[in-house]
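Re: export button greyed out
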Amino acid sequence: MNKYLFYPGCSMESSAKAYMESMNAILEPLDLRFEEIEDWNCCGATEYLGINLIPAYSLIARNLALALDQVGKMNGTDGTHTVVAPCSACYLNLAKADHYMQERPSLGAKVNEALAAGGLSYKPGALDVRHLIDVLVYDVGLDKIRSRVVRPLHGLRVAPYMGCMLPRPDYKNRWSDHEHPTELDDLLRALGAEVIEYPLTTSCCGGHMTQIGPETAFELIRRLVADADDRGADLMATVCPMCQMNIDAYQNEMNHFFGTDYHMPILFFTQLMGLAFGKEPGEVGIGMELVNARNAMARVGVEVPLTQEPAGPRKKDEGLPMPRRWTKREVEKEAVK
Amino acid sequence: MPQMTDERVLSRLREEDLSLLHEVSMKTAGVSRLEMCIQCGTCGGSCPSAMDMEHTPRMLFAMLRAGMRDEALRSNTPWICVSCYHCVVRCPQEVHIADVMYTLKSMAIKAKLYRDDIAPHFSQTFVDMVETYGRSFEFGLASRHYLRHFPLRMPGMMPMGFGMITKGRMGITPKKIRRMDQLKAILNRASQLELTL
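Workaround output, generated via the alternate export path:
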């Protein structure tokens, strides 16, 4: 039984519930035990850092301080100095705070001054911050994962989407490559899935731009979805709640913006692991995605019960004949003329 | 990019302008290495959202070196940065480019020099939620933000919002941490502190 400290992050309890459920479903088969950091708080995502530096780092560091306290109370089992985060943004923030507090001692001192106001302290470098897939691939190992597979995902064509904040900036040199890491590919192959060549694997999903500059975000989402579609993927697999949210929840709006009709489901890699381990779709949160994965699941013989789908934009087929909506490219072409 | 006449260049040879680069570097977490920029342009060439930026990162860093404080802080570039760290891992001088962008955002907010208020408001609303609950609160954040800045986008987004709620992916009540008093004390103290060398 390998024990780790666990920092869920806000989205695991809301938009990425499917990630949380599927992760919990695979822990036991892999002999993993996660102990949640007591009373953890939000990491500030990519928002707080751009507002006020010391409070932003103090917010992150409170989690590290609480985790370190908890380590002290657990009297040292193997792996207990490791904090596991399943969200790429949380992982990066925690790792970044730990790293920069060492690189710039004055940051460490100021943050500790703030933490002291809450009776806490953190010694930079005392914890090891790692992402869930890092622990699964490098601690648990692909052999063990392969040995748990009872329903191989043969014939399912998956685009492995790592996203940006996981392999970069990579303060501790954990990943096989910064731009084309293969950890997710290897893991999906261990499940029996057919992994397609996906050069955009670490391209950005748009991050918070879906909220503040949708046109910038839509183009980034379009590239990812269009490329996965061109290469014949049945679905995309992700390791990050933000990537899942942007590609899943905003795909409809993106289609509307460009006049396209892509249907590219995106699931968390843990959902595919759960399925391969023989779990039922409902146990691993399948059906919670907005771009449904029903057809993709049918390829591996998994039947997803029908749930009520949110209605898309109303189609006015029977109305007056209207010219087709132009795509952005057509608009640009016309402008050049 | 505004034209700089000789007179304007001369008038900028004041200490506070020449030290702009150092100020930004100083205020950035870690050791930013901004001073080491060799203007190679790898950053802009690697950037997925450069097409929407007024200045590529390279140009922006040159403006910092030239002491163009207002122009640099008014640039939309830091607000378009998606924090994907492509430039960071490719930069031959290992400049902490994404973190410099965070610093420029906070300086622009302090100097009230941003032109488009959507992004600063979004960040501030997010931070307000975190400072109140200790957790992010997507429903509150989204409704406040869209009502204020994208009311026309709301009808088109209803199906998505409805889907998120019915599928249990977005709670309509916030979650709050237990020791909010402790977090508030930490953040209060932190807001009085400044990063030094």
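Chain A touches chain B through 82 residues (CB under 8 Å). The button fix ships in the next patch.
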